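Hey team,

Filing this mostly as a record. A colleague (T.K.) asked me to run one chain through the structure pipeline before their review meeting, and I want the input and output archived in the tracker in case anyone asks later how it was produced. No errors, nothing strange. Just documentation.

Input sequence:
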Amino acid sequence: MANTNVFVFGLNEFNRRKLENIRGSESITFHKLLDRSELTERMHYPIQEILDHARQRLRAFSGSVDGIIHYIDFPVSTIVPILAREFGLPSASLEAVLTCEHKYWARVEQAKVTPKSTPPFAAFDPFDDQALQRLEQEVGYPFWIKPVKSFSSYLGFRVDRPEDFHAGIRRIRAEISRFREPFDYLLDQVELPPDVAGVGGGHCIAEGIIDGHQVTLEGYGFNGNIHVYGAIDSKRHANRSTFGRYQYPSALPTRVLEGMEAITRRFLSHIGYDNMPFNVEFFWDAERDRIWLLEVNTRISESHCDLFEKVDGTSSHEVAVDLALGREPRFIKGDGAYPVAGKFFLRTYGDARVERIPDEAEIRRVERQVPGTTIQVQVEEGGRLSALMDQDSYSFCLALVFIGGRDEDDIVAKFHQVENALDFRLGQAA
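Output structure:
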């Protein structure tokens, strides 16, 4: 029987272990497609060069190219549809992916089919000195600003008064060029609708503030049907912007999750999203019993894969692999070792220099002491926190901690145990 070859953008050891643990992995060989350093945390994304390198790697391979998967945001999320089309592999269309990736385009289409879950929004040029006056009229305070192409909370700022807008715009103007040129190149590959055509990679979006209980639905499109297989709660810190942890499964009422699923199906069917995984972020305003659609990400969430493995017995990578091979996923629920799992962010606020991080022996010791725990340090000794790339606008992440447990209280207690046991030392930033 011929071996199946699946190429994985930026494959690292953490994700290789997840992939090799999915059902049927014994008949699949996973190949790294470009190094992660070529794809993430760069000040400049040479999109054509990245595409050419990936093409060369695939064409030089002596065996069959049977599938391409990814779990990385821009630019990989937009490259996969191009390569899949060229190599005759299953994937969502580039148009459908860009509709989700372009924050303004997504809002335009969402407003057509699910207006009650779409906040007021407007596009603007961050270099337009008169933009604030228009946004005050069209959106109104308070609002959130971010580039039309960004990820997580990078270059995202809450605006309660003009001073907040001007402070955020200064940083956006300094850094938005990271995405403008590569995103515009991708937008040139499709026909944009008239009401989006003038809004390119150098533009921003302002949105009315939406809030509440945040939850993410993981799912996929296959043969014209949209499916959801999991819901994960996002727990934030007091500033309401910074993530504290992701927790699976969601504790929201079933009727609320069903309402979110209905909105997901309506929007993704409207744009023709198919044959690819997704995760969709929502807020539920419990006081008003209102669901808000935040955004659609065109991939599995790397943050959630370990949570699915702990609770369901297999990573969401299995869904991505099945779809890449043209197979309908058969995701089995509740077959894992733990009823509840979480991904915690060990964070600090304010710039500092990293004087000490836990060594490998210390990390393994803490993992043994706290069962069901995996720790990933995110900083290096001697580094300055402000030099870290792609952090949120208000904090710095020192480590990621994946934890499985009996219930929410158990995983929170385990995190505090890990937090107290890890010896990070921070000094004054020079």
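Quick notes for T.K.: The mean pLDDT is 93. The chain has 13 helices and 17 strands.
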